[in-house]
Records
---
Amino acid sequence: MSPDSKTSTKATAENDLEAVSHQLAALREDMSRLAETVSAIAGRRGSRMVADIAEGFDEAKHYAESKGRSAEAQLEESVAAHPFMTIGLAVGAGFLAGALSRR
């Protein structure tokens, strides 16, 4: 091998190493920008998701309250329509609870 080819090979290797180093720096910068973009998107979606969940809980609460009131009204109507059956059921439930508590 001639001295010129060794110098040329060394220069080519240094150039390749420098090119790879620049590409890695560019890749790091691109990855950093990508991470920032993904974080921003996740933050916006997370905020929307929290708002949607809160709204869903609020709707569920109102639904449960209205159904509870409706069930309470139906129970009152049933007791008013059938008072003796209600008393009989209460007595039966009391006897059952008493029998189970003795065991």
---
Amino acid sequence: MNEDAGPIFRQVADQIENAIVDGSLPEESQAPSSNELAAFHRINPATAAKGLNQLVADGVLYKRRGVGMFVAPGAREQLLKRRRSEFADQYVRPLMTEAQKLGIAPHELTDMIDRWEDPR
């Protein structure tokens, strides 16, 4: 886990969310257990459980008594919606603010984006 990326339990939750978003952990599939996550990341099982329980509280995972935690129906769409909103707040709003300061019209910005080539 990365000490610079916030609390470890949040990193565990983010890892599970990323797997749901990218499709490697589909809806209705079983999420890794807190013991599996703890062993993999070499962290306390209670810390891993805190990350999983946060996802339950958020409606991303649900518990099946005696079986484990599973990805909730609609979880991927819920996460995509939240992340798109966060993307707009973090990137688009500042981009539009700066473009306005520079006198760049929205259609000019769209043209810049359309012409942008990935340098990789």
